[in-house]
Design goal:
Layout: H1 38-41, H2 122-136, H3 140-153, H4 158-170, H5 174-187, H6 192-204, H7 208-221, H8 226-238, H9 242-253, H10 260-272, H11 276-289, H12 294-306, H13 310-323, H14 328-340, H15 344-357, H16 362-374, H17 378-391, H18 397-409, H19 418-436, H20 445-494
Helix pairs in contact: 2-3, 3-4, 4-5, 4-6, 5-6, 6-7, 6-8, 7-8, 8-9, 8-10, 9-10, 10-11, 11-12, 12-13, 13-14, 14-15, 14-16, 15-16, 16-17, 16-18, 17-18, 18-19, 19-20
Length: 495
């Protein structure tokens, strides 16, 4: 099984979506939804060594790092290797929740049966695998061609349609991405990945009500698909409707009380409700059930960090990344802590990998630019900050970071003198303050920076004036000496 994450990021600059999706089909298609690392690595170029070739997750999401299967057997939809969790559909193989389940009475037999998931034919499967490999090598055009070939070879290849949506999603082409996700849903009406992909775009665009309205009828229709229930729960958390998210998670847990993705929704919803102890208890239970879910360790890291326990937090983030090398949120959280601790090069590597799997997320680009700044790679930092401004023209933070960069770089920034760099820094800090408006704290450090820069500029201007005066004196002295020498030469000639 696989679980696709939500974007919460420590920077909170993108809408959080915790969508959990099945990573497998009906047991016959050997093109595992993972096939090698999903969007977690599609596009990673080896910075962290965890890159694989799979797409199958929208920008900023991550999925477990699994090997391609060696045979034609996959897990049933909703199952997880080593997990007792049931499939998203129908019965759970006799392992129904006991009546005393803390989540309520079991509902295994209720709800409409799920539509079967048909495997790709061999020609489509071959093209699909080529697409995964091309995507893993950053060859997006070749990947797109291969996925289109898969669809041409088999009109039921819903995973190929989905991955075409992922490529468009990563490129920031929202309308085209939604179109491909909808095509995947027309083929496979309960395909949780496509549901999650569309909801993610709505959330990323700040339209949480639309995301909820989109997912709700699908969750009501496909009540046996536990992953769809988890997607719905996570969308509700993102829409700040945690009580409803708890109910959505319980709907899945009444079918399988060991279904970890629903437990994760419960953790996040209870955290949103301020029920920290309950959230911790459910988190511990989920980890005891199956500790191979990277998001569990990410959430534990966040809780450790909020408690000020940084060493355990870093250990949890590292564990999450070990499980899923392309886990953007975990890399961001870990990278930010490393950056704050002065481990600039290591932080830079994490941000570079995150930017490969989430190239259109401004928060990731902002962090990457800051790491380049910290390592004095000024032009690379400027390029990343420029990208952030293109993505979010009203982003205030990027101007603060640019101000810090110009202040630190001074004349080291190519083509600028100290005074020019300082003047640019002042301009950026002023722009930051303008965009922040009433949100600007009274003790915001930008005011101190501007005052310091005014002194630096004044010092530079005095130095320039001294140099100009010195140069003028030297020029006058040279002129006098030349005149005296000319007079002496004239006198010598007169004799």
């Amino acid at each position: 099984m696989r679980i696709v994450l939500r974007l919460s990021l420590a920077l909170a600059l993108v809408a959080p979506l915790g969508a959990f999706v099945a990573g497998c089909d009906d047991g016959n298609d050997d093109t595992s939804d993972n096939a090698g690392g999903d969007s977690t690595s599609g596009g990673e170029n080896g910075d962290e060594g965890g890159g694989r070739s799979e797409l199958e997750a929208p920008p900023g999401s991550r999925e477990p790092d699994e090997e391609l299967p060696d045979d034609d057997l996959e897990n049933q939809p909703g199952s997880d290797p080593g997990d007792s969790g049931g499939s998203p559909g129908a019965d759970t193989g006799g392992e129904t929740a006991e009546p005393e389940s803390p989540w309520g009475q079991p509902e295994t037999e209720t709800g409409a049966p799920l539509p079967p998931r048909r495997p790709m034919n061999s020609a489509a499967r071959s093209a699909y695998q080529r697409g995964l490999q091309a995507a893993g090598q950053g060859q997006n055009d070749a990947a797109r061609d291969a996925f289109n070939q898969a669809l041409s070879a088999d009109s039921n290849a819903f995973k190929a349609a989905y991955n075409l949506g992922v490529l468009a999603d990563r490129a920031g082409q929202d309308a085209q991405a939604i179109s491909y996700y909808e095509r995947a849903l027309r083929i496979q009406p309960d395909y949780e990945r496509a549901i999650e992909g569309i909801a993610r775009i709505h959330l990323r665009n700040g339209d949480s009500s639309r995301a909820v309205s989109f997912v709700r009828p699908l969750a009501d229709r496909w009540v046996r698909n536990l992953y769809v229930q988890a997607v719905y729960g996570d969308v509700l958390v993102s829409a700040n409707r945690p009580e409803e998210a708890v109910e959505a998670a319980r709907r899945a847990l009444r079918r399988d009380e060991r279904f970890v993705p629903a437990m994760i929704v419960m953790v996040k919803a209870n955290l949103r409700l301020g029920r920290t102890e309950l959230a911790q208890s459910i988190l511990d239970q989920a980890i005891e059930t199956n500790d191979n879910f990277a998001e569990l360790h990410y959430l534990r890291g966040r809780m450790h960090q909020e408690d000020g326990a940084l060493a355990p937090a870093l250990a949890s983030y590292n564990r999450a990344i070990q499980l899923e090398p392309g886990y953007t949120e975990a890399r961001m959280a870990l990278g930010l802590q490393l950056l704050a601790a002065g481990n600039y090069q290591e932080a830079l590597q994490h941000f570079r990998t995150a930017s490969n799997s989430a190239p259109t997320i401004a928060a990731v680009r902002l962090a990457l630019g800051d790491a380049y700044r910290a390592t004095k790679q000024w032009q690379q930092a400027k390029a990343e900050f420029d990208r952030v401004q293109e993505m979010q023209p009203q982003n205030a933070e990027v101007h603060f970071n640019l101000g810090v960069m110009y202040r630190e770089a001074g004349e080291s920034f190519p083509g600028l003198s100290n005074i020019e760099a300082y003047q640019r820094a002042v301009s950026e800090f002023n722009r930051y303050r303008e965009l922040m408006g009433p949100r600007l704290p009274r003790d915001d450090p930008s005011a101190t920076y501007v005052e310091e820069l005014a002194r630096l500029i004044e010092r530079e201007e005095r130095a320039i004036e001294r140099d100009r005066a010195r140069a003028q004196r030297e020029a006058e002295r040279a002129a006098r000496e030349a005149a005296e020498a000319q007079a002496q030469d004239g006198a010598a000639e007169g004799q």
